[in-house]
Amino acid sequence: DTEVTQTPKHLVMGMTNKKSLKCEQHMGHRAMYWYKQKAKKPPELMFVYSYEKLSINESVPSRFSPECPNSSLLNLHLHALQPEDSALYLCASSQGTGYRAETQYFGPGTRLLVL
Amino acid sequence: QQQVKQSPQSLIVQKGGISIINCAYENTAFDYFPWYQQFPGKGPALLIAIRPDVSEKKEGRFTISFNKSAKQFSLHIMDSQPGDSATYFCAASFGAYSGAGSYQLTFGKGTKLSVIP
Asked: Is pLDDT of B100 > 50?
């Protein structure tokens, strides 16, 4: 099973709202990722968690706040977003063994619209 | 040196034809090269991947050809079908231990493939 699940599938929020995106995997992977993808563009890395610790933050604005409650779950908390933050938000995971480049498995994404 | 250059940007192929997408990289530290297939509104799905110790890998109708000396790799889709119509991304990743247990994928800009009946 190589499934990464994400909820919700779609989200519409105002610029003053607070919302959260959720991601879950049960493959025993220890590395989890958040990506942002705009239309007709490749995914852009936002955050990487390794063994539940934030290891990479690609200079993402503080209105995006990641959280990794345990090895299977990854959240992305959203607050005071801007319309330009509207995009497909993707979660991915990989084994996280640390000695070889490895496959990242992506979830279906959350389509976010900021009004 | 972190870039992966992908071409063409779009491709139209007749049903039953061969679709070919090319990628080139500069950084010789890359040692893992996956291809992802993405349908509109969906997440990227791993299609096939190769490491530089082999020159070709085939899975069904999909083949990766890898030329280490030229720093190029390509995806061939044989007997292309309308259901193959999607956006394809090549990517590359480092193999050295980062200390973080995680790896960053460098993506190409994508190729939109349309297979017409």
From this structure: no
The 3-state secondary structure of B9-24, one letter per residue? CEEEEECCCCEEEEEE
Note if the bond before B8 is cis, omega within 30 degrees: yes
Question: Which of the pair, A15 or A87, is modelled with greater confidence?
Answer: A87
Min distance A17 CA to chain B CA atoms (Å): 24
Q: Which of A4, A21, A50 to mutate to test the interface with B (most CBs of B within 10 A)?
A: A50
Task: Tell me which chain B residues have a C-beta less than 8 angstroms from the C-beta of A6.
Answer: 43
pLDDT in tens, A32-72: 999 999 999 999 999 999 889 998 888 899 999 999 999 99
- Residue whose pair of structure tokens reads 């192929």 in the numeric block: B13
Work out the average pLDDT over A17-26.
Answer: 96
Q: Is the pLDDT of residue B101 over 50?
A: no
B52 touches B66 (CB < 8 A):
yes
* Backbone torsions φ then ψ of B103, nearest 5 degrees: -140, 145
Residues of B in contact with A48 (CB under 8 A): 100, 102, 104
Residue B32 clears pLDDT 50, i.e. is over it? yes
User: Do the Cβ atoms of A48 and B102 come within 8 Å?
Assistant: yes
SS3 A84: helix
Question: Smallest Cβ distance to A42: which of B49, B89, B112?
Answer: B89
B40 contact partners, CB below 8 Å, separation of at least 6:
none
